[in-house]
Specification:
Strand order of the largest sheet: 1-2-3-4-8-10
Radius of gyration: 33 Å
Shape: extended
Structural class: alpha/beta
Distance between the termini: 123 Å
Helix content: 40-55%
Oligomer: single chain
Number of domains: 1
Strand content: 15-25%
Number of helices: 5
Largest sheet: 6 strands, mixed
């Protein structure tokens, strides 16, 4: 069984918990405001003015909650999406653990605070970055090379290539130039894959083909290389998300007005034509 570093899907479950806490906070504040208004009404001397203030306050709370309903729906959808992704990552992580104990599996590796890489594999068969998708349906490639999920274009190939390149860049910063190529792999455990050939450098695998794809496309590494990579990845797993900050993009320069055109110079008039002298008789 592959050596495990980190729990599969921990980033997705963490994001889902954040969404739940935000939803709970909004509901708790709404209940608190309504309870405060009701308590104030029943504890203070009764009057029509007080009744009007209490009803008005309750109406304002109801209006705020109604306006926040689309936001609550959006947060609930995002929470479900994160949970579905985390469960798919747990399945893929469990499948990858079927590799032998010479492999190391890093799950939910965060190289920066706002995103993670689902799985990074290091072993005698090379260095792999695995991106997992929880979608259902059919995965195909258009004649122009665009990846289609249920006929809808997706940018998953570019995403997993970006993740593999990020792993390579961080490892080179730590270990120098002696870093193997990080092979990108797109794992779609619940989809029918209608494109068997690799798409550029990216391999695509269903859950039943995942281990076979890795074993058939090995990029051999020596034990010393594996040890250095594991130590570097372990350090990145513990510290990278707190230390790294994406470089800020410089604002684009404001467009400059074109220089004023030079005044047109009037053309010189043509020289007068002198008639040739007539021949003498």
């Amino acid at each position: 069984m592959a050596k495990l570093h980190g729990i599969p899907g921990r980033y997705g479950r963490g994001q889902a918990r954040k969404q739940f806490r935000r939803m709970f906070l909004i509901l708790a504040l709404s209940v608190l405001l309504v309870g405060f208004a009701a308590g104030f009404y029943y504890s203070a001397p009764k009057s029509f003015l007080l009744l009007g203030v209490t009803v008005g306050a309750s109406g304002i709370v109801w209006l705020v909650v109604t306006k926040l309903e689309p936001l609550m729906d959006e947060m609930a959808d995002e929470r479900l999406r994160q949970l579905k992704g985390a469960e798919a990552e747990r399945l893929v992580g469990w499948l990858l653990m079927g590799l032998d104990d010479t492999w190391h599996l890093f799950n939910s590796l965060q190289l920066e605070e706002a995103r993670d890489i689902d799985h990074v594999l290091v072993g005698p068969g090379g260095l792999w970055a695995v991106s997992t998708k929880s979608h259902r349906g059919t995965l195909a490639v258009s004649p122009t090379g665009q990846l289609l999920c249920n006929r809808t274009p997706e940018k998953w190939l570019g995403d997993v290539k970006f993740q593999a390149r990020a792993v390579n860049e961080r490892l080179r910063a730590l270990l120098g130039s002696d870093v193997p190529f990080c092979q990108p792999l797109l794992a779609v455990p619940f989809m029918y894959v209608d494109c068997r050939a690799p798409q550029g450098p990216v391999y695509i695998a269903h859950k039943e083909e995942l281990i076979d794809v890795i074993e058939r496309n090995r990029r051999p590494l020596k034990a010393a290389q594996i040890k250095r990579l594991v130590e570097a990845l372990d350090m990145l797993d513990k510290t990278a998300k707190r230390l790294y900050r994406a470089p800020e993009r410089e604002p684009a320069p404001a467009p400059q007005a074109p220089p004023p055109a030079a005044p047109a110079i009037p053309a010189a008039p043509p020289p007068p034509v002198t008639p040739a002298p007539a021949d003498a008789p």
